[in-house]
Structures are given as structure tokens and as C-alpha cells.
Recover the amino acids of this structure.
């Protein structure tokens, strides 16, 4: 049986208590994602919805969590029944009785009973927090329930229960990490750093991107990762200029740069690290110029992190400083502010300087105060990436020939503290002299 440590159960209960304070009078309905499409008789690995796991710790598919603070029962799980035949094929199931006891919820029912019980569980609610488009079957059930409930109100004139996005609601809680959250987050960062270091040592010209990918997965798994934190990007040579390159099938050639954007997940928390380095350990002059420019910008953005600074200011600073680098390299001409205002810099830097990080690689949480777009200030307990980059396409006739095909991104994970910041991935080498010593050293 997959029993949860008591401290983890306490963590889930503490999270529910914090959420309950803002959920009074409302009902939160969280559903597991639809199971991955099956290839023949073998399914792809299932990962629980982050929000459902965040409040319960329950990891099985075909599950729903209903939370109604102030109403009995408050916490209800709908789960698969025990089924010895299916468990022979797919593994252990808790079933309702054991799920209620082991995960310390007020009630648990078979998932087949959700449609007949949910209307009663929604009675008296002022609003519902639910995220549609994640599970089509549940979307249809919720739509039917809401329409039936409206019909039951007769001629009162009352309409459908207001439906609010549970991701936005819970994101406000998840964006600030607790001490126990940070224990898991630090472990994800540490094992990912170690995997990057070992991969640097392993890299040689003549290997394939796919081999590097497999080696990295081996390194995170041997250190306790449950899975990759996201689809890894292993991009050599001009492939590094494709932001979400996924093929990972090119041969590493002598003189190439290799961009490795990869990390492991530990207890549902992920890291997100990118390092770029030559496959032979030695930067060419042109590669070094681009790399040092990006590294200089990354350090400056990280050094500016402090509580109270609007998150948008980090993006603005990154764009301005990277535009300075583009001017130094002759990629652009003109005045920096004019170029940024006209978005000319986005030709070589088309993304932002970072994003929230946590249970998902692009974690939930509002970057703005409201729908008017007022910027939100960063706070202690937030974790986010700082990842400037420059990408010069191989066929860019406007760039000097020796820069063409160079793509560089450097990404670290930053924890905001009361005093400023902590770089959770600081042990991952990124100075040119350090990379020259470690790449290919195995």
C-alpha cells in the first residue's frame, strides 16, 4: 500500500485550512485530468492534477475532490472502487473506504456516484470554483447539474450558480511557498543541478541529443525524481534557436553549442534549469560574446530581485539589457528605448525573463493585481525563474555570419526572501571558465 507520511497529511490539512478561510459559502470542485491516450494496451504515465494533489495528496486517476468549508461533510473524495481484476493489470486502488481513512477526508464515495450526489453537495452554495476543459466527461456532468439546479429554482428568477476558475483561486495560495513546500522544491532543484553537472561531464561530440536526453533522465531518476518536470529541450547547434525544440534527434557536432533545458520533479515540485555550453568544452569567440552578454543580463536581473518590486519590472529590465547586448553585437541599430518600444528586440529575444515555478513548471499565480493589469509586487516565498536568452537564426542575413545559428539561454530558480533573494540552483555551473573545466570531463 502506498501510505503517505503523517507530515505530508498534515501539510494537506494545513493547506485546506488556509483555503477554507476564503472559500466560505462556496464549493470547490477539483477533478483529475483525463487519462493519457493509450497506445495499444499500455498507457502513458498518469500525473494527478496539481490542485487536486495540493489539497489532498491523492494520486489516482478518475477522482474528484469536493471542498465545502462550513458544511458537513466538508471534504469529499470520489474515487475508483476496489477491483481485484483491474488491480492485477493496473496496480493498487484505495477504494472509497480506505481513501477516506488514509487521506483523512470526511467522506469518500465511488466515482460512479458523483453525478447523483453532486447536486446535493452544491446546495446552498453562492458560487462554484471549477476549471473546465480539463476533463470532458466531468464538464458534461457539471453542465447538466447546473442546468438541473437552475430548473429546480422555479420562478425565482435566479440563474445558474456563478462559476469561477479554480486555477486562479488556488494559484493565489500556491504562489507563496510554505516551509514544507520549500523542502520539496529545494530537493527538486538539488537533484536537477546534480543531473546537469553529470550530463555536462558526459557530453561529447558525436553523441545524439536523444542520448543526452536519456542520460539526463537516468541522472534525475537515480536521485529520486518521480518524472521529468516538463518535456526536456536538448538542442544542439542551430536547434537552440527554436524555443520549444522537441525532436532531440540531432548529432552533436564539434564546435556546436548545446542548450539543455531540463529538470526533475520531486513530490510534485519541479525545478527548471537551462544551461548552454560547447559540446567540446571550448567557446569560440563569437559564442563567448553572445554567452557573456546573456550571462551579464541574467546576473543583473537576479541582483535586482527584492520584495516589493513589481514582477513586470524584471521583464522590462531584461528586455532593456538584452537590447543593449544586441546593439553591442551589431544585431540591431538605433536607440535602445525606441527599439524596445517598437518590439524590435523580440526578433532575437521573443519570450519573457521568467515565470512562476512550483508544482507546475509554469506555475499558477497572478502576475497582476486585477484584470485591469496593475502589476503585482513580488513577495517573500515566491519562486520563479530568471532566464534571458538570445537566439540568432542560422539563416538571418542581417546578423554577422559568425553569430548565425547561435542560441543561448541561461536559467536559474530564484526564491524571494525577506532580505532579497536566494538562487536555489546556484551550484549549477555557468561561468565560462567553470564550464570549460567540467564539460566532457568524465
Amino acid at each position: 500500500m502506498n501510505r503517505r507520511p503523517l507530515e505530508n497529511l498534515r501539510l494537506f490539512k494545513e493547506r485546506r485550512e488556509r483555503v477554507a478561510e476564503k472559500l466560505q459559502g462556496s464549493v470547490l470542485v477539483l477533478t483529475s485530468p483525463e487519462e493519457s491516450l493509450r497506445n495499444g494496451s499500455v498507457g502513458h504515465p498518469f500525473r494527478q492534477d496539481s490542485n487536486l494533489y495540493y489539497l489532498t495528496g491523492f494520486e489516482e486517476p478518475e477522482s474528484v475532490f469536493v471542498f465545502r468549508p462550513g458544511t458537513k461533510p466538508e471534504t469529499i473524495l470520489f474515487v475508483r472502487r476496489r477491483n481485484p481484476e483491474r488491480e492485477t493489470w493496473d496496480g493498487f486502488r484505495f477504494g472509497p473506504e480506505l481513501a477516506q481513512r488514509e487521506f483523512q477526508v470526511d467522506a469518500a464515495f465511488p466515482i460512479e456516484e458523483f453525478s447523483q450526489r453532486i447536486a446535493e453537495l452544491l446546495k446552498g452554495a453562492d458560487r462554484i470554483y471549477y476549471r473546465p476543459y480539463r476533463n470532458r466527461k466531468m464538464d458534461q456532468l457539471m453542465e447538466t447539474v447546473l442546468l438541473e439546479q437552475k430548473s429546480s429554482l422555479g420562478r425565482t428568477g435566479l440563474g445558474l450558480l456563478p462559476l469561477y476558475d479554480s486555477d486562479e483561486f488556488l494559484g493565489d495560495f500556491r504562489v507563496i511557498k510554505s516551509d514544507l513546500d520549500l523542502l520539496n522544491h529545494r530537493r527538486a532543484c538539488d537533484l536537477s543541478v546534480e543531473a546537469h553537472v553529470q550530463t555536462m561531464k558526459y557530453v561529447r561530440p558525436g553523441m545524439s541529443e536523444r542520448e543526452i536526453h536519456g542520460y539526463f533522465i537516468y541522472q534525475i531518476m537515480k536521485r529520486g525524481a518521480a518524472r521529468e518536470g516538463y518535456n526536456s529541450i536538448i538542442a544542439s547547434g542551430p536547434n537552440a534557436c527554436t524555443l520549444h525544440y522537441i525532436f532531440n534527434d540531432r548529432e552533436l557536432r564539434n564546435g556546436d553549442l548545446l542548450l539543455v533545458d531540463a529538470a526533475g520533479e520531486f513530490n510534485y515540485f519541479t525545478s527548471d534549469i537551462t544551461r548552454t555550453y560547447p559540446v567540446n568544452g571550448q567557446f569560440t569567440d563569437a559564442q563567448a560574446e553572445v554567452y557573456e552578454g546573456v550571462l551579464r543580463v541574467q546576473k543583473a536581473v537576479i541582483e535586482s530581485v527584492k520584495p516589493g518590486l513589481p514582477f513586470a519590472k524584471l521583464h522590462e529590465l531584461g528586455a532593456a539589457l538584452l537590447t543593449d547586448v544586441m546593439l553591442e553585437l551589431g544585431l540591431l541599430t538605433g536607440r535602445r528605448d525606441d527599439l524596445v518600444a517598437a518590439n524590435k528586440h523580440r526578433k532575437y529575444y521573443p519570450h519573457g525573463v521568467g515565470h512562476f515555478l512550483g508544482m507546475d513548471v509554469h506555475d499558477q499565480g497572478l502576475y497582476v493585481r486585477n484584470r485591469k493589469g496593475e502589476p503585482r509586487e513580488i513577495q517573500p516565498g515566491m519562486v520563479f525563474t530568471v532566464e534571458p536568452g538570445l537566439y540568432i537564426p542560422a539563416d538571418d542575413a542581417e546578423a554577422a555570419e559568425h553569430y548565425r545559428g547561435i542560441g543561448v539561454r541561461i536559467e536559474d530558480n530564484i526564491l524571494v526572501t525577506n532580505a532579497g533573494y536566494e538562487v536555489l540552483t546556484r551550484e549549477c555551473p555557468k561561468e565560462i571558465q567553470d564550464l570549460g573545466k567540467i564539460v566532457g570531463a568524465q
